[in-house]
Amino acid sequence: MTHTRITMNYFNKALQPARGERHPPRTFIAGGTAIHLNYNPSCTGVKIEDVASDFNIPNLHVVLSDFLQRDSRDRETVHGVDGPRIRPLIDRSSTLPFDRIQVWHSVRLQQTSFHESSVLPAQTVHASPSSPEWPKGRRDTVLVNVDGESEWPKSGLTGELPLIS
């Protein structure tokens, strides 16, 4: 019972270059939050329409298409999960070069201490589609500040709502 668990620093992990990995990075920084996905997704090869329906994200196809259009226009910019949510460049679904995606039902979030210059232990956030046990699904609610101009709690809960809800 004398073992001490070492806190994984996902901020450092996100900043480390991938060393010969064949898979894309799964740790990102958005504002003052580090986001880490497990190596293996919960589901692979799921139709976009099924994910949109299961998780009640009716504009998922449009948002994915918009992301790819923005990425193809500006290859020098790494488009992450941070920054203000802006309206899509398109107002209708366009053709995607894929029709299936990977889904993670949980992600690890880590923040830095508000009062100290240390990282806090990571917290796991879950989101599961509807099932017989959970007819409306099961989703943890999380508020994440990704705006470098805002500092909580001083700034309060200001900002834009995400396009995906």
Number of domains: 2
**Which range best describes the helical content: under 10%, 10-25%, 25-40%, 40-55%, 55-70% or over 70%?**
10-25%
The fraction of residues assigned to DSSP E strands is 15-25%
The total count of helices amounts to 3
Can you summarize the main beta sheet? 5 strands, antiparallel
Oligomer: single chain
User: What is the N-to-C succession of helices and strands?
Assistant: HEEEHHEEEE
**Poorly predicted runs:** 81-85, 161-165
- Strand order in the largest sheet: 1-2-5-6-7
Distance between the termini: 43 Å
Shape: globular
Mean pLDDT: 77
Summarize the structure.
It is built from three helices and seven strands, in the order αβββααββββ. By secondary structure, it is an alpha+beta fold.
Q: What are its keywords?
A:
165 residues; alpha+beta; 2 domains; 5-stranded antiparallel beta sheet; two-stranded antiparallel sheet; 3 helices; disordered C terminus
Give an overview in words.
- With 165 residues, the protein is an alpha+beta fold.
- The protein has two domains: 1-40 and 106-158, no CATH class; 43-103, no CATH class.
- Helix content is 16%, strand content 19%.
- It is built from three helices and seven strands; from the N terminus they run αβββααββββ.
- The protein has helices spanning 10-15, 48-54, 60-73; strands at residues 27-30, 33-36, 43-47, 100-103, 106-111, 123-128, 138-139.
- The strands form two sheets. The chain has a five-stranded antiparallel sheet with strand order 1-2-5-6-7. Strands 3-4 form a two-stranded antiparallel ribbon.
